[in-house]
Write a structure and sequence with these properties.
There is one protein chain. The protein is mainly alpha-helical and 191 residues long. The protein has one domain. The protein has eight helices and two strands. It has a two-stranded antiparallel ribbon with strand order 1-2. α2 packs across α4. The radius of gyration is 21 Å and the shape is elongated. The termini are far apart.
């Protein structure tokens, strides 16, 4: 028996056997027990709700002038600085929205509406610095043309990875899950 591998393997470590197999074969950690990972469709829907919420607020606050951020004629004129200022307002408003709702609720309002939550890979709550990085990286999805590329690429990656992580999630070290599927100890910080 010493000249070949034994068919019996001793399983040492945490989690179920299935979690350990996936972890060892794909080089990823296992998700919290019982957690249901969010699909790309739900994540896209929650992102859309978030953009509608922030853009609607900006339309009311600026009296409709925020639309100049997407005015190509204004961008190519001598008065392009108005479009640049409005684009800056759009980006800052979304960054603040994602950061502040993340800190307050552990998710954005769109994610809350769809029952999703963002947690660290081990199921614990995210730190303020993690929310800063996550909100900053999500701004790429707001830049016209680039948003199509990054959105399609990340949707493909979400469906390919067993952890359903986008590149933003991998960079930050987070996962997006159905909030009610988390163990009670991991749900304490979610509002």
């Amino acid at each position: 028996m010493s000249d070949h591998d034994s068919p019996i393997q001793i399983n040492s470590g945490g989690g179920t056997l299935a979690q350990q197999i996936v972890s060892s074969e794909q080089g990823h950690w296992s998700v919290p027990d019982g957690a249901i990972l969010a699909s790309g469709v739900r994540r896209t829907a929650s992102f859309t709700v978030d953009v509608v919420i922030v853009t609607t607020i900006l339309m009311v606050v600026t009296g409709g002038r925020i639309i100049d951020a997407w005015n190509l004629t204004l961008w190519s004129s001598a008065d392009f600085h108005y479009a640049l200022a409005q684009a800056f307002v759009v980006l800052v408003a979304h960054w603040l929205y994602w950061r502040l709702t993340g800190i307050a609720y552990s998710r954005s309002l769109g994610q809350r509406m769809l029952g999703l939550a963002i947690v660290v890979e081990d199921g614990s709550g995210m730190t303020s610095q993690m929310w800063d990085m996550r909100a900053l990286r999500k701004l790429l999805y707001l830049i016209p043309v680039l948003n199509l590329y990054f959105g399609a690429y990340d949707l493909a990656r979400i469906s390919q990875r067993h952890t359903h992580q986008s590149n933003v999630d991998l960079f930050v070290g987070s996962i997006v899950v159905h909030a009610d599927s988390l163990p009670p100890a991991s749900r304490q910080h979610i509002r």
